[in-house]
Amino acid sequence: MIEQFLAFFGALMDQTGLAHFWWGNAVMIAVGGVMIYLAVAKGYEPLLLVGIGFSCIIANVPGSDLIQPGGLFHYAYQGVQLLVVPPLIFFGVGAMTDFSPMIANPKLVILGAAAHLGIFVALIGAKLLGFTLNEAGAIGIIGGADGPMAIFMTIKLAPHLLPQISVAAYSYMALMPLIQPPVMKLLTTEDERRIRMKQSRQVTRLEKIAFPIVIGIIVNLFFPPVAPLITMLMLGNLFREVLVVNRLAKTAANELMNVIIIVLTVAIGSTMQADRFLTVDTIEIVGLGLVAFVFGTGSGVVGAKIMNLFLKEKINPLLGSAGIASVPIAARVSHNVALEYDKENYLIYHAMGPNLAGVFGTAISGAIMLALLGVK
Amino acid sequence: MTMPDSLYGAVMLSLIDFFASLVMITGIGVVLALFPLLNRIGKVDEDALRKSQH
Protein backbone atom coordinates (compact mmCIF):
# COMPACT_ATOMS: atom_id res chain seq x y z
CA MET A 1 0.00 0.00 0.00
CA ILE A 2 2.73 2.43 1.06
CA GLU A 3 4.91 1.28 -1.84
CA GLN A 4 2.04 1.93 -4.25
CA PHE A 5 1.45 5.33 -2.74
CA LEU A 6 5.14 6.21 -3.10
CA ALA A 7 5.18 4.97 -6.72
CA PHE A 8 2.14 7.09 -7.58
CA PHE A 9 3.59 10.04 -5.72
CA GLY A 10 6.91 9.61 -7.57
CA ALA A 11 5.13 9.47 -10.93
CA LEU A 12 3.16 12.57 -10.00
CA MET A 13 6.35 14.41 -9.01
CA ASP A 14 7.95 13.42 -12.31
CA GLN A 15 5.18 15.21 -14.14
CA THR A 16 5.77 18.46 -12.28
CA GLY A 17 8.57 20.86 -13.02
CA LEU A 18 10.02 20.34 -9.55
CA ALA A 19 11.75 17.08 -10.49
CA HIS A 20 13.68 18.78 -13.30
CA PHE A 21 14.64 21.89 -11.36
CA TRP A 22 18.41 22.42 -10.95
CA TRP A 23 20.56 25.20 -9.50
CA GLY A 24 21.00 26.80 -12.95
CA ASN A 25 17.25 27.49 -13.06
CA ALA A 26 17.50 29.20 -9.67
CA VAL A 27 20.36 31.39 -10.93
CA MET A 28 18.43 32.40 -14.05
CA ILE A 29 15.27 33.09 -12.04
CA ALA A 30 17.41 35.41 -9.92
CA VAL A 31 18.76 37.05 -13.11
CA GLY A 32 15.19 37.63 -14.29
CA GLY A 33 14.33 39.06 -10.90
CA VAL A 34 17.31 41.45 -11.05
CA MET A 35 16.15 42.64 -14.47
CA ILE A 36 12.68 43.42 -13.16
CA TYR A 37 14.25 45.14 -10.13
CA LEU A 38 16.49 47.30 -12.35
CA ALA A 39 13.50 48.23 -14.51
CA VAL A 40 11.15 49.04 -11.63
CA ALA A 41 13.47 50.45 -8.97
CA LYS A 42 16.21 52.01 -11.11
CA GLY A 43 14.24 52.85 -14.25
CA TYR A 44 16.71 51.04 -16.57
CA GLU A 45 14.91 50.39 -19.88
CA PRO A 46 11.67 49.20 -18.23
CA LEU A 47 9.96 48.70 -21.59
CA LEU A 48 12.47 45.97 -22.35
CA LEU A 49 13.60 44.59 -19.02
CA VAL A 50 10.18 43.87 -17.48
CA GLY A 51 9.17 41.55 -20.33
CA ILE A 52 12.61 39.98 -20.69
CA GLY A 53 12.94 39.45 -16.93
CA PHE A 54 9.51 37.87 -16.53
CA SER A 55 9.82 35.53 -19.50
CA CYS A 56 13.35 34.59 -18.34
CA ILE A 57 11.86 33.55 -14.99
CA ILE A 58 9.08 31.54 -16.64
CA ALA A 59 11.50 29.90 -19.10
CA ASN A 60 13.46 28.59 -16.12
CA VAL A 61 10.51 26.98 -14.40
CA PRO A 62 10.80 23.47 -15.86
CA GLY A 63 7.69 22.23 -17.59
CA SER A 64 6.38 25.64 -18.62
CA ASP A 65 4.24 25.06 -21.70
CA LEU A 66 4.59 28.67 -22.82
CA ILE A 67 8.03 28.05 -24.29
CA GLN A 68 7.13 24.70 -25.88
CA PRO A 69 5.69 24.43 -29.42
CA GLY A 70 2.09 25.50 -29.03
CA GLY A 71 2.95 28.06 -26.35
CA LEU A 72 2.75 31.79 -26.94
CA PHE A 73 6.38 32.52 -25.99
CA HIS A 74 7.47 29.89 -28.51
CA TYR A 75 5.56 31.65 -31.29
CA ALA A 76 6.92 35.01 -30.18
CA TYR A 77 10.40 33.56 -30.68
CA GLN A 78 9.34 32.25 -34.09
CA GLY A 79 8.52 35.85 -35.01
CA VAL A 80 12.09 36.83 -34.15
CA GLN A 81 13.66 33.76 -35.74
CA LEU A 82 11.75 34.20 -39.00
CA LEU A 83 12.88 37.85 -39.06
CA VAL A 84 9.37 39.24 -38.88
CA VAL A 85 9.85 41.17 -35.64
CA PRO A 86 13.11 43.13 -36.32
CA PRO A 87 11.82 44.84 -39.52
CA LEU A 88 8.59 45.75 -37.69
CA ILE A 89 10.62 47.36 -34.89
CA PHE A 90 12.45 49.42 -37.49
CA PHE A 91 9.09 50.34 -39.02
CA GLY A 92 7.91 51.72 -35.69
CA VAL A 93 11.23 53.47 -35.02
CA GLY A 94 11.02 55.13 -38.44
CA ALA A 95 7.57 56.46 -37.64
CA MET A 96 8.88 57.87 -34.35
CA THR A 97 12.05 59.46 -35.67
CA ASP A 98 12.75 62.91 -37.07
CA PHE A 99 15.81 62.60 -39.33
CA SER A 100 16.22 66.38 -39.67
CA PRO A 101 19.42 66.54 -37.54
CA MET A 102 21.07 64.08 -39.92
CA ILE A 103 19.85 65.85 -43.07
CA ALA A 104 20.81 69.28 -41.72
CA ASN A 105 24.42 68.42 -40.93
CA PRO A 106 25.67 65.77 -43.38
CA LYS A 107 29.33 65.99 -42.34
CA LEU A 108 28.46 64.54 -38.94
CA VAL A 109 27.17 61.42 -40.71
CA ILE A 110 30.78 60.17 -40.94
CA LEU A 111 30.76 59.74 -37.16
CA GLY A 112 28.11 57.07 -37.67
CA ALA A 113 30.83 54.91 -39.21
CA ALA A 114 33.77 56.09 -37.09
CA ALA A 115 32.04 54.93 -33.91
CA HIS A 116 31.88 51.36 -35.14
CA LEU A 117 35.47 50.35 -34.56
CA GLY A 118 34.18 48.48 -31.52
CA ILE A 119 32.39 46.01 -33.79
CA PHE A 120 35.68 44.92 -35.29
CA VAL A 121 37.68 44.90 -32.07
CA ALA A 122 35.05 42.57 -30.59
CA LEU A 123 35.01 40.50 -33.77
CA ILE A 124 38.76 39.93 -33.67
CA GLY A 125 38.58 39.33 -29.90
CA ALA A 126 35.88 36.70 -30.41
CA LYS A 127 37.98 34.97 -33.05
CA LEU A 128 40.94 34.93 -30.65
CA LEU A 129 38.71 33.28 -28.04
CA GLY A 130 37.91 30.48 -30.48
CA PHE A 131 34.52 31.44 -31.90
CA THR A 132 33.90 30.75 -35.58
CA LEU A 133 34.08 33.73 -37.93
CA ASN A 134 30.29 33.80 -38.30
CA GLU A 135 29.84 33.72 -34.52
CA ALA A 136 32.52 36.42 -34.14
CA GLY A 137 30.67 38.61 -36.65
CA ALA A 138 27.41 38.26 -34.74
CA ILE A 139 29.17 39.04 -31.44
CA GLY A 140 30.92 42.05 -32.99
CA ILE A 141 27.62 43.58 -34.07
CA ILE A 142 26.79 44.09 -30.37
CA GLY A 143 29.15 47.07 -30.73
CA GLY A 144 26.71 48.63 -33.16
CA ALA A 145 24.44 49.23 -30.16
CA ASP A 146 21.41 48.53 -32.30
CA GLY A 147 19.20 45.82 -30.78
CA PRO A 148 17.11 44.83 -33.81
CA MET A 149 20.20 44.82 -36.06
CA ALA A 150 22.09 42.65 -33.54
CA ILE A 151 19.16 40.20 -33.57
CA PHE A 152 18.95 40.30 -37.37
CA MET A 153 22.66 39.60 -37.81
CA THR A 154 22.69 36.89 -35.14
CA ILE A 155 19.80 35.05 -36.75
CA LYS A 156 21.69 35.20 -40.05
CA LEU A 157 25.14 34.29 -38.70
CA ALA A 158 24.82 32.35 -35.43
CA PRO A 159 21.20 31.79 -34.34
CA HIS A 160 22.27 29.58 -31.41
CA LEU A 161 23.85 32.66 -29.79
CA LEU A 162 20.68 34.78 -29.96
CA PRO A 163 19.92 34.78 -26.20
CA GLN A 164 23.43 35.81 -25.18
CA ILE A 165 23.87 38.43 -27.90
CA SER A 166 20.45 40.03 -27.57
CA VAL A 167 20.73 40.20 -23.79
CA ALA A 168 24.26 41.67 -24.00
CA ALA A 169 23.20 44.22 -26.66
CA TYR A 170 20.11 45.44 -24.81
CA SER A 171 21.78 45.38 -21.39
CA TYR A 172 24.72 47.49 -22.53
CA MET A 173 22.39 49.89 -24.34
CA ALA A 174 20.60 50.41 -21.03
CA LEU A 175 23.96 50.90 -19.31
CA MET A 176 25.37 53.40 -21.82
CA PRO A 177 24.99 56.36 -19.44
CA LEU A 178 27.44 54.52 -17.17
CA ILE A 179 29.79 53.06 -19.80
CA GLN A 180 30.32 56.01 -22.15
CA PRO A 181 31.13 59.10 -20.01
CA PRO A 182 34.45 57.86 -18.53
CA VAL A 183 35.71 57.00 -22.04
CA MET A 184 34.50 60.34 -23.43
CA LYS A 185 36.18 62.28 -20.66
CA LEU A 186 39.40 60.29 -20.96
CA LEU A 187 39.76 61.19 -24.63
CA THR A 188 38.79 64.88 -24.54
CA THR A 189 40.02 68.03 -22.85
CA GLU A 190 37.70 70.31 -20.88
CA ASP A 191 38.03 72.96 -23.59
CA GLU A 192 36.92 70.46 -26.24
CA ARG A 193 33.91 69.46 -24.16
CA ARG A 194 32.88 73.12 -24.02
CA ILE A 195 32.86 73.64 -27.79
CA ARG A 196 29.48 75.04 -28.84
CA MET A 197 27.89 74.03 -32.11
CA LYS A 198 26.43 76.48 -34.60
CA GLN A 199 22.67 76.25 -34.96
CA SER A 200 21.72 73.88 -37.79
CA ARG A 201 19.72 74.96 -40.81
CA GLN A 202 15.98 74.32 -41.09
CA VAL A 203 15.12 71.20 -43.07
CA THR A 204 12.11 71.63 -45.37
CA ARG A 205 9.17 69.25 -45.66
CA LEU A 206 10.21 68.39 -49.22
CA GLU A 207 13.64 67.22 -47.96
CA LYS A 208 12.03 65.25 -45.15
CA ILE A 209 9.73 63.46 -47.63
CA ALA A 210 12.55 62.84 -50.11
CA PHE A 211 14.85 61.39 -47.43
CA PRO A 212 13.15 58.01 -46.86
CA ILE A 213 12.57 57.53 -50.58
CA VAL A 214 16.19 58.30 -51.54
CA ILE A 215 17.64 56.20 -48.70
CA GLY A 216 15.22 53.36 -49.51
CA ILE A 217 16.54 53.27 -53.06
CA ILE A 218 20.22 53.52 -52.01
CA VAL A 219 19.91 50.76 -49.41
CA ASN A 220 18.10 48.33 -51.70
CA LEU A 221 20.57 49.09 -54.48
CA PHE A 222 23.81 48.81 -52.50
CA PHE A 223 23.02 46.86 -49.32
CA PRO A 224 20.36 44.24 -50.12
CA PRO A 225 21.30 41.96 -47.18
CA VAL A 226 20.03 44.51 -44.66
CA ALA A 227 17.44 46.15 -46.89
CA PRO A 228 14.47 44.57 -45.03
CA LEU A 229 15.33 46.55 -41.91
CA ILE A 230 16.26 49.92 -43.38
CA THR A 231 13.44 49.80 -45.94
CA MET A 232 10.90 49.37 -43.15
CA LEU A 233 12.61 52.16 -41.18
CA MET A 234 12.16 54.40 -44.20
CA LEU A 235 8.54 53.36 -44.79
CA GLY A 236 7.70 54.25 -41.20
CA ASN A 237 9.47 57.56 -41.62
CA LEU A 238 7.67 58.30 -44.88
CA PHE A 239 4.32 57.72 -43.12
CA ARG A 240 5.43 60.28 -40.53
CA GLU A 241 6.73 62.92 -42.89
CA VAL A 242 4.08 63.00 -45.63
CA LEU A 243 1.57 64.26 -43.02
CA VAL A 244 -1.42 62.83 -44.89
CA VAL A 245 -1.50 59.42 -43.17
CA ASN A 246 -1.04 60.47 -39.56
CA ARG A 247 -3.25 57.65 -38.31
CA LEU A 248 -0.91 55.07 -39.89
CA ALA A 249 2.18 56.86 -38.56
CA LYS A 250 0.67 57.00 -35.08
CA THR A 251 -0.29 53.33 -35.19
CA ALA A 252 3.21 52.34 -36.31
CA ALA A 253 4.85 54.49 -33.65
CA ASN A 254 2.53 53.58 -30.78
CA GLU A 255 0.15 50.62 -30.85
CA LEU A 256 2.11 48.44 -33.29
CA MET A 257 5.42 49.30 -31.64
CA ASN A 258 4.03 48.41 -28.23
CA VAL A 259 2.79 45.03 -29.47
CA ILE A 260 6.14 44.33 -31.10
CA ILE A 261 8.03 45.27 -27.94
CA ILE A 262 5.93 42.77 -25.98
CA VAL A 263 6.59 40.05 -28.57
CA LEU A 264 10.31 40.86 -28.72
CA THR A 265 10.89 40.94 -24.98
CA VAL A 266 9.11 37.67 -24.25
CA ALA A 267 10.90 36.07 -27.20
CA ILE A 268 14.33 37.11 -25.90
CA GLY A 269 13.58 36.27 -22.27
CA SER A 270 12.18 32.87 -23.14
CA THR A 271 15.46 31.86 -24.78
CA MET A 272 17.37 32.46 -21.55
CA GLN A 273 17.05 28.90 -20.28
CA ALA A 274 19.79 27.96 -17.81
CA ASP A 275 21.19 25.05 -19.83
CA ARG A 276 21.72 27.33 -22.86
CA PHE A 277 22.67 30.49 -21.01
CA LEU A 278 24.95 29.44 -18.16
CA THR A 279 28.01 28.71 -20.26
CA VAL A 280 31.53 30.09 -20.62
CA ASP A 281 30.47 31.43 -24.04
CA THR A 282 27.97 33.73 -22.33
CA ILE A 283 30.64 35.22 -20.06
CA GLU A 284 32.93 35.73 -23.06
CA ILE A 285 30.15 37.33 -25.14
CA VAL A 286 29.16 39.68 -22.32
CA GLY A 287 32.84 40.66 -21.89
CA LEU A 288 33.29 41.20 -25.62
CA GLY A 289 30.12 43.31 -25.73
CA LEU A 290 31.60 45.65 -23.14
CA VAL A 291 34.86 45.85 -25.12
CA ALA A 292 32.84 46.68 -28.25
CA PHE A 293 30.94 49.51 -26.52
CA VAL A 294 34.09 51.01 -24.99
CA PHE A 295 36.05 50.95 -28.27
CA GLY A 296 33.03 52.20 -30.26
CA THR A 297 32.63 55.15 -27.93
CA GLY A 298 36.35 55.88 -28.07
CA SER A 299 36.65 55.60 -31.84
CA GLY A 300 33.70 57.95 -32.30
CA VAL A 301 35.32 60.60 -30.10
CA VAL A 302 38.69 60.14 -31.80
CA GLY A 303 36.95 60.29 -35.20
CA ALA A 304 35.44 63.67 -34.27
CA LYS A 305 38.86 64.92 -33.15
CA ILE A 306 40.38 63.81 -36.46
CA MET A 307 37.61 65.67 -38.31
CA ASN A 308 38.50 68.78 -36.30
CA LEU A 309 41.99 68.70 -37.81
CA PHE A 310 40.42 69.48 -41.18
CA LEU A 311 37.42 71.63 -40.21
CA LYS A 312 37.55 75.40 -39.91
CA GLU A 313 34.53 75.35 -37.61
CA LYS A 314 35.34 72.81 -34.91
CA ILE A 315 32.80 70.25 -33.76
CA ASN A 316 32.39 69.15 -30.15
CA PRO A 317 34.15 65.73 -29.99
CA LEU A 318 31.52 64.51 -27.51
CA LEU A 319 29.27 64.17 -30.56
CA GLY A 320 31.49 61.34 -31.78
CA SER A 321 30.34 58.85 -29.18
CA ALA A 322 26.73 59.39 -30.29
CA GLY A 323 27.65 57.71 -33.58
CA ILE A 324 27.41 54.35 -31.84
CA ALA A 325 23.63 54.28 -32.61
CA SER A 326 21.33 53.26 -29.74
CA VAL A 327 18.94 56.10 -30.56
CA PRO A 328 18.49 58.32 -28.59
CA ILE A 329 20.44 57.08 -25.55
CA ALA A 330 23.91 57.84 -26.95
CA ALA A 331 22.82 61.32 -28.09
CA ARG A 332 21.47 62.01 -24.62
CA VAL A 333 24.78 60.92 -23.06
CA SER A 334 26.72 63.36 -25.31
CA HIS A 335 24.29 66.11 -24.35
CA ASN A 336 24.50 65.40 -20.63
CA VAL A 337 28.31 65.19 -20.54
CA ALA A 338 28.55 68.55 -22.38
CA LEU A 339 26.10 70.09 -19.89
CA GLU A 340 28.39 69.12 -17.00
CA TYR A 341 30.98 71.60 -18.33
CA ASP A 342 28.72 74.29 -19.79
CA LYS A 343 25.16 74.61 -18.52
CA GLU A 344 24.04 76.32 -21.73
CA ASN A 345 25.65 74.00 -24.23
CA TYR A 346 22.72 72.02 -25.62
CA LEU A 347 24.14 69.32 -27.86
CA ILE A 348 21.10 67.05 -28.14
CA TYR A 349 19.93 68.16 -31.61
CA HIS A 350 23.46 68.01 -33.04
CA ALA A 351 24.14 64.66 -31.37
CA MET A 352 21.04 63.16 -32.97
CA GLY A 353 22.73 63.53 -36.39
CA PRO A 354 25.60 61.06 -35.76
CA ASN A 355 23.28 59.02 -33.56
CA LEU A 356 20.86 58.43 -36.44
CA ALA A 357 23.77 57.94 -38.83
CA GLY A 358 24.98 55.24 -36.45
CA VAL A 359 21.87 53.20 -37.32
CA PHE A 360 22.91 53.34 -40.97
CA GLY A 361 26.55 52.72 -40.03
CA THR A 362 25.64 49.50 -38.22
CA ALA A 363 23.37 48.41 -41.07
CA ILE A 364 26.06 49.07 -43.66
CA SER A 365 28.70 47.26 -41.59
CA GLY A 366 26.28 44.36 -41.23
CA ALA A 367 25.52 44.25 -44.94
CA ILE A 368 29.20 44.25 -45.88
CA MET A 369 29.91 41.58 -43.26
CA LEU A 370 27.15 39.32 -44.60
CA ALA A 371 28.45 39.80 -48.14
CA LEU A 372 32.07 39.04 -47.13
CA LEU A 373 30.96 35.95 -45.20
CA GLY A 374 28.86 34.75 -48.11
CA VAL A 375 25.63 34.75 -46.09
CA LYS A 376 22.37 35.81 -47.71
CA MET B 1 35.06 34.11 -52.49
CA THR B 2 34.46 34.30 -48.76
CA MET B 3 36.73 35.05 -45.82
CA PRO B 4 38.71 32.13 -44.34
CA ASP B 5 37.54 31.13 -40.86
CA SER B 6 40.79 32.18 -39.18
CA LEU B 7 42.33 35.11 -37.33
CA TYR B 8 43.63 36.36 -40.68
CA GLY B 9 40.07 36.22 -42.03
CA ALA B 10 38.77 38.12 -39.00
CA VAL B 11 41.38 40.88 -39.42
CA MET B 12 40.78 41.14 -43.18
CA LEU B 13 37.00 41.19 -42.68
CA SER B 14 37.33 43.91 -40.07
CA LEU B 15 39.64 46.10 -42.14
CA ILE B 16 37.59 45.81 -45.33
CA ASP B 17 34.27 46.26 -43.52
CA PHE B 18 35.41 49.27 -41.48
CA PHE B 19 36.85 51.21 -44.38
CA ALA B 20 34.08 50.21 -46.81
CA SER B 21 31.46 51.33 -44.23
CA LEU B 22 33.29 54.63 -43.85
CA VAL B 23 33.29 55.17 -47.62
CA MET B 24 29.63 54.16 -47.99
CA ILE B 25 28.40 56.35 -45.19
CA THR B 26 30.46 59.23 -46.53
CA GLY B 27 28.61 58.64 -49.80
CA ILE B 28 25.30 58.96 -47.97
CA GLY B 29 26.64 62.18 -46.44
CA VAL B 30 27.42 63.50 -49.90
CA VAL B 31 23.90 62.68 -51.08
CA LEU B 32 22.48 64.48 -48.03
CA ALA B 33 24.68 67.49 -48.74
CA LEU B 34 22.85 67.78 -52.07
CA PHE B 35 19.42 67.80 -50.41
CA PRO B 36 19.11 71.61 -50.22
CA LEU B 37 19.06 71.56 -54.04
CA LEU B 38 15.65 69.85 -53.83
CA ASN B 39 14.22 73.10 -52.56
CA ARG B 40 14.77 74.61 -56.00
CA ILE B 41 12.04 72.31 -57.30
CA GLY B 42 9.44 73.99 -55.15
CA LYS B 43 7.84 74.06 -51.74
CA VAL B 44 5.43 71.65 -50.06
CA ASP B 45 2.34 73.25 -48.55
CA GLU B 46 2.35 71.67 -45.08
CA ASP B 47 -0.99 73.15 -44.05
CA ALA B 48 -2.69 71.62 -47.08
CA LEU B 49 -1.13 68.24 -46.27
CA ARG B 50 -2.25 68.43 -42.66
CA LYS B 51 -5.82 69.21 -43.71
CA SER B 52 -6.03 66.31 -46.15
CA GLN B 53 -5.98 63.44 -43.64
CA HIS B 54 -7.08 60.06 -44.95
Automatic annotation (TrEMBL), chain A:
The keyword Signal does not apply. One of its GO terms (molecular function) is lyase activity. Its EC number is 7.2.4.2. The keyword Transmembrane helix applies. GO terms for cellular component: plasma membrane. Keywords: Cell membrane, Ion transport, Membrane, Sodium, Sodium transport, Translocase, Transmembrane, Transmembrane helix, Transport. It is a multi-pass membrane protein. It is an enzyme of class 7 (translocase). Its main location: membrane. GO terms for biological process: sodium ion transport. It is found in: Cell membrane. Its cofactor is Na(+). The chain crosses the membrane at residues 20-40, 47-63, 75-96, 108-126, 169-188, 209-236, 256-274, 286-311, 356-375. It catalyses: oxaloacetate + 2 Na(+)(in) + H(+) = pyruvate + 2 Na(+)(out) + CO2. Heterotrimer of an alpha, a beta and a gamma subunit. Belongs to the GcdB/MmdB/OadB family. Catalyzes the decarboxylation of oxaloacetate coupled to Na(+) translocation. This is oxaloacetate decarboxylase (Na(+) extruding).
UniProtKB/TrEMBL annotation, chain B:
The chain crosses the membrane at residues 6-35. Keywords: Membrane, Transmembrane, Transmembrane helix. This is Uncharacterized protein.
